[in-house]
Each structure stands twice: as C-alpha cells, then as structure tokens.
Design a protein that fits this description.
Elements lengths: L2 H11 L12 H5 L12 H9 L9 H5 L5 E3 L5 E3 L8 H5 L13 E3 L5 E3 L35 H12 L19
C-alpha cells in the first residue's frame, strides 16, 4: 500500500471524510506551477463542440490524427477518450466539423500589386493574381449524396457530373463501411 493509500485509509477509519474527487479535467486546473502551453486544444473541447453537439460525421479523422492513440471509438461508434489526452490539438485541427484555431488560419488576400499574400508571409507570386474571393455554403442535391457527407457532398457531386459529361474517365470515391462508420 502506498503512503497516500495508508493515510487515506487511516483518515477514513478515524471517521474523517475523504476529499471529493475532482470532476473530469479539473485536475489540470488544480496543478500548481504547471502552465499550459498557449493555443492548446484538448479532446474534451472537441467533444463538447462536435460530438456532444451532434455534429460528428464519424469520419475518424480525430482518431487517425491522435499521435498518442488517446482517442478511440466508443460503444456508440463516436470518438471517445481512451487514455489521457496530451493536448496536441491535432484532433481539433483535422476534424472537418471542428473549427480552425485562429493561430493556424491563413487569410489570403492581395496587396496593391494584385499578388496573393498569406497573412504573416511574403507574397507568393507563383500563385498568380487574385481575381475574386467568395465564400459559400453548399449542399449537393445529388441522389447519391450521403445524408451526412463531409462538405455537403459537393466534391462527389462535381465528380459525378464530370463523369456523366465525359470530362473524366473515372473517379475514386470512398463510401462508409456500415461495420466501421468512424473510418469514413
């Protein structure tokens, strides 16, 4: 028995009360003298923003991206923490339904010379001149689009249209395996 276990047992035997266990992830906040690196995103933040919010498409990107194999697949076929998260942020960065951290977001625009610029970097003239910049939210109306397709199934719809018109000879598409839906 460890010294801590002996003290806890003695305290309980004396009619004392044991301290309440900390709620999940509060342990980190109670560690004195240990500072968290700036910009870290932990799995519990991804779980709150994506999994608990019912936004997960079960693609498995977070599982594949985790370098410490801390993320696995739970009984409900959703990603779950299987061992301690290291806070590497890769699950968040690779999740198509997560969000980009601001420090890793690149904003493209052009300067007075019309050349592409990436915020914080030198101009990249090999990219050519920026003609227009637009943002859109799209969803394919194609009958073969999966109900929870990544990016609305637009890439699949474009490929199928190009195939039907004869612009391409073939396209390799991925389907969800019903036995392992988390793999995408």
């Amino acid at each position: 028995m460890t010294d801590l276990a002996v003290r806890a047992t003695a305290r309980a035997d004396e009619g004392g009360t044991l301290p309440e266990p900390l709620p999940p992830f509060r342990l980190r906040a109670s560690m004195s003298g240990i500072e968290e690196a700036p910009g870290k995103v932990w799995f519990f933040e991804l779980a709150a923003a994506v999994i608990d919010a019912d936004r997960c498409v079960r693609c498995g990107a977070c599982v594949a991206a985790c370098p410490s194999d801390s993320i696995g697949i739970g009984h409900d076929d959703l990603p779950a923490l299987v061992k301690m998260c290291t806070g590497c942020s890769l699950c968040w960065d690779f999740c198509p339904r997560g969000g980009l951290r601001y420090e890793t977001t690149w904003h493209a625009d052009t300067g007075d010379d019309g050349q592409w610029r990436i915020t914080g970097a030198d101009p990249a003239p090999e990219l050519g001149k920026l003609v227009a910049s637009r943002a859109a939210r799209v969803r394919s109306g194609h009958p073969h689009r999966a109900p929870s397709a990544q990016d609305g199934g637009v890439v699949t719809a474009v490929l199928l249209a190009a195939l039907a018109s004869g612009e391409i000879d073939g396209a390799l598409l991925a389907r969800v395996d019903p036995k392992t839906p988390w793999r995408g």
